[in-house]
Amino acid sequence: MKKLLNLFDISNIKRISFRNDINGLRAIAVMAVVFYHAEFSLFKGGWLGVDVFFVISGYLISNIIISELNSKTFSFKSFYKRRAKRILPALFSIILITIPFAYFLMSPKAMEEYISSIFASVFFFANFHFQNLDFYVSESAKVMPLLHTWSLAIEEQFYIIFPVFTVLIYRYLKKYFTALILIMTVVSIYINTLIDGVYKFYQLHFRAWELLLGVLVMIFSSNLSIKH
């Protein structure tokens, strides 16, 4: 019983060093998505790379926050500054690179939708933007250069909510943290069974179980002594 309870303990979690295996898994996930969209027949399940990426994000972000809380070095300012430095340069580069191609190659209707997607991407609500498009009258998804930012929006929404949640629970209900994450993971999986439709693909609460699964893997693996 004591060993089982130790698996749930977050008080000894330390910051992990750079992991080549996680970086390699991230690369595989990205390539799987790229090959899926390139319609390679061997990668029909390549969209699962997004799910893998969410798990990795939950793993890494939770380790950063909890380890810094344990060492009393966590600050919201520092956390969000690091996230911005990591994400915004790449996002703005993609937008700047696609603007001239959009201007010369897109129809007026497609250009209008592209401009709307820029604002949605920059302010991290691209998942709602693309979810609410009527693809019956909208341009094909294949000519939407920023369509992939729906997943970035979900991650950013997680980055906004999860640190606040973690700090509050760590301060007042620390010993129940893992149990609460486990409950939230099960709830997220359960609500996926309740409805059908595009909302399940684009909204955070339906994707939360993947991010939270990464958190659980991080906690349990930190408390297990595994030789390899």
Structure explained in plain terms:
The chain has 228 residues and is an all-alpha fold. It is 71% helix and 0% strand. The chain contains ten helices and no strands. It has helices at residues 2-7, 20-37, 48-70, 76-105, 108-122, 126-131, 149-172, 177-192, 199-202, 204-223. Helix 3 (48-70) crosses helix 10 (204-223), helix 7 (149-172) crosses helix 10 and helix 8 (177-192) packs antiparallel against helix 10. The chain starts with a helix and ends in a 5-residue tail after the last helix. The mean pLDDT is 90.
How is this structure best summarized?
This protein is mainly α and 228 residues long. Helices cover 71% and strands 0% of the residues.
Summarize the helices and strands and which ones pair or pack.
Elements: H1 2-7, H2 20-37, H3 48-70, H4 76-105, H5 108-122, H6 126-131, H7 149-172, H8 177-192, H9 199-202, H10 204-223
Helix pairs in contact: 2-3, 3-7, 3-10, 4-5, 7-10, 8-10
Give the distance, in angstroms, between the N- and C-terminal Cα atoms: 25 Å
DSSP helix fraction = over 70%
**Largest sheet properties:** none
Mean pLDDT: 90
Q: How many beta-strand runs?
A: 0
User: Low-confidence parts lasting 5 or more residues at pLDDT below 50?
Assistant: none
Work out the radius of gyration.
19 Å
The share of residues in extended strands comes to: under 5%
Overall SS class: mainly alpha
Overall shape: it is elongated
Number of contiguous helices: 10
Which series of helices and strands comes N to C? HHHHHHHHHH
